[in-house]
Amino acid sequence: MNSFRDLLFYFWAISATAFAQPLHLTLDAALELGMNNRLDLKNSALQLDILSIRQQQTASGWLPQINATLDARWNTRLQTTFIPAGAFGSSADRFIRLGRPFNNLVGVNATQKIYDPGLISQKQVQQIELDQSYAELQVAVAQVRQQVAMAYL
After folding, report:
1. Strands (E), 1-153
2. 3-state secondary structure of 72
3. Beta-sheet strands, E only, within 25-135
4. In the chain, what is the greatest distance between 2 CA atoms, to the nearest angstrom?
5. pTM, entire model
6. What's the CA gap between 95 and 85, in Å, rounded?
7. Given 3-state DSSP classes, what are the helix, strand and coil percentages for the chain, each rounded to the nearest 5?
8. Among 20, 72, 52, which Cα is nearest to 134's?
9. Which positions ≥6 away from 140 have C-beta within 8 Å?
């Protein structure tokens, strides 16, 4: 039974290769196919995008920071103060209520960085990393193009 199954498999494999259509590619099509199917090139391109986004995040550290606060309070019970007779020229003891029934505070705070050595050095390092990754991608693209061209010939 195994020999019949093996024989059937061999017949199928031979017939599939005998009737297969040959693939005709030009050099440009082969280069494009090779460039599109290399995962290391796609990974390098994504790494460039990540480094570019990190550089934009670092640059956003130089943007002005604006903070706003609002504090609204309603006093349900005002403080009562006792003033004895004779104080301030009065003839009787008095109780007075001090304060306001409401209190509102609004505040705005704006800051702008003028000099930050940490951000400056971080931006320089990220630019070097971006340039290095771009150069590595260009080298990898050239190598893949060369490999595909050698395989094509």
Report:
1. 65-74, 79-83, 94-98, 102-111
2. strand
3. 65-74, 79-83, 94-98, 102-111
4. 127
5. 0.57
6. 11
7. 60, 20, 20
8. 52
9. 40, 41, 44
* CA pair distance 54, 105, nearest whole angstrom: 38
Q: What does the pLDDT average to over 17-38?
A: 78
* Strand pairing class (65-74; 102-111): antiparallel
SS3 132: helix
What phi and psi values does residue 73 have, to the nearest 5 degrees? Answer: -130, 145
pLDDT tens, 86-137? 777 778 888 888 878 888 899 999 999 999 888 889 999 999 999 999 999 9
β-sheet bridge partners, residue 137 = none
Of the CA atoms within 13 Å of residue 147, those in its CB half-sphere come to 10
Q: How far apart are CA 3 and CA 1, in angstroms?
A: 5
Indicate the Cα dihedral angle 37, 147, 131, 126, nearest 10°.
Answer: 50
**Least confidently predicted of 14-18, 30-34, 82-86:** 14-18
